[in-house]
Amino acid sequence: MSLLSGRRFDPRFETLLVHGRLAAGEGSMADFAEREGARTEYVSSLGQPVSAWNDPLALARLIGIAHRFRPHIVHTHTAKAGFLGRAAGLTLRPRPLIIHTYHGHVLRGYFGPRRTALYRDLERLMGRVSDRLLGVSRATVDELVGMGVAPREKFREVPLGADLEPFANVTEEEGRSARRELDVSDDETLLLSVGRLVPIKRLDVLLHSVRHALGLGAAVRLAIVGDGELRPRLERLAGELEIRDAVEFLGFRRDLPRIAAAADVAVLSSDNEGTPVALIEAAAAGRPAAATAVGGVPEVVTEDVGIVVPPRDPIALGRAMTRLAESPELRAKMGEGARRSALRRYSAERLLADVLNLYDELLDRSAAA
Question: pLDDT at position 33, please?
Fold first, then answer.
């Protein structure tokens, strides 16, 4: 959330971004925070997985930071940081406003039944003491209300906002250069997947979809950007499916706008998703999507900007890839719609205005109480 603590945010607010260790398969956003001018503090004990040693240390550190900084608003993100950060905020007197943003959630599809039930109970506990809960999509809010995390009146939908200018302004020549580096010919359709290589993203389904598209005669290639625990297994699977020559595992990249410009279609095969940032960024570069209809994906990938299919259905996803691969006209039409939609609905400026209005509203209400 560098945007909310950087130079673009309202100067009336003195902000501090507290962050922890990256989970496996995640890329650092430290350079983006630095570019935004965010004031940051690093807590080395804050990170995944759950730890009986590190988690109490992280809470103690967060409490110390909170008592030193004395915030009027504590705004948290992600599951563990959200729980510990809100707990730290509750130790302050006077009590600050407590806000948490759900970019998705881990209450379905990530863990076994017992752990999922425990985490749901913890979210319900924190939901009771939070002043406002934000969901990045209507689907996210609906799911959390349905799980009893908090009543609907405590939630507000605040769609994602991102710095999309690098994607909107990338040139076709930059894209052609990246295609040459990837050895993708003009008559091949390059599919782009961006994200962590973890179970919930179901890259196994994506690989089976690519094999199905190839079997239908589509000249497709797949570029996978990101890393994670499943990479060795996925590379083996690509070999077993005899599509290894059609799949490039690129790891982390710092030239995502270039790669998006090189691609023809953005793809996503997740079982669960809040708001698909990678699809929004690709859309800003004018790229349509083929994706599973989970979480907030259908709110981003409407019928004029891409194709959505049921999750865990590689045949349906392969057909969607094939349809887009075989129709440059459809790709161009949907790509233009995707660009317009992304820049209108998911800009950084819109997010900053939404959050600032919320802060002012809650502060005014608190002062009047």
Answer: 67
Q: How far apart are the first and last CA of the chain?
A: 29
pLDDT of residue 24 exceeding 70: no
Distance CA 12, CA 1 (A): 17
HSE-up (13 A, CA, CB side) for residue 341: 25
- The pTM of the full predicted model, rounded to 2 decimals, is 0.87
Spatial distance between the Cα atoms of 322 and 324, rounded to a whole number of angstroms: 5
Residue with tokens 């407590």: 98
Query: Which pLDDT does position 30 carry in this prediction?
Result: 59
pLDDT tens digits, residue range 125-151? Answer: 999 999 999 999 999 999 999 999 999
Q: In what helix (H) or strand (E) does residue 26 lie, and over which residues does it extend?
A: none
- 3-class state of residue 242 by DSSP: coil
Which domains, ranges and CATH numbers included, belong to the chain? 2-161+347-368 (3.40.50.2000), 165-345 (3.40.50.2000)
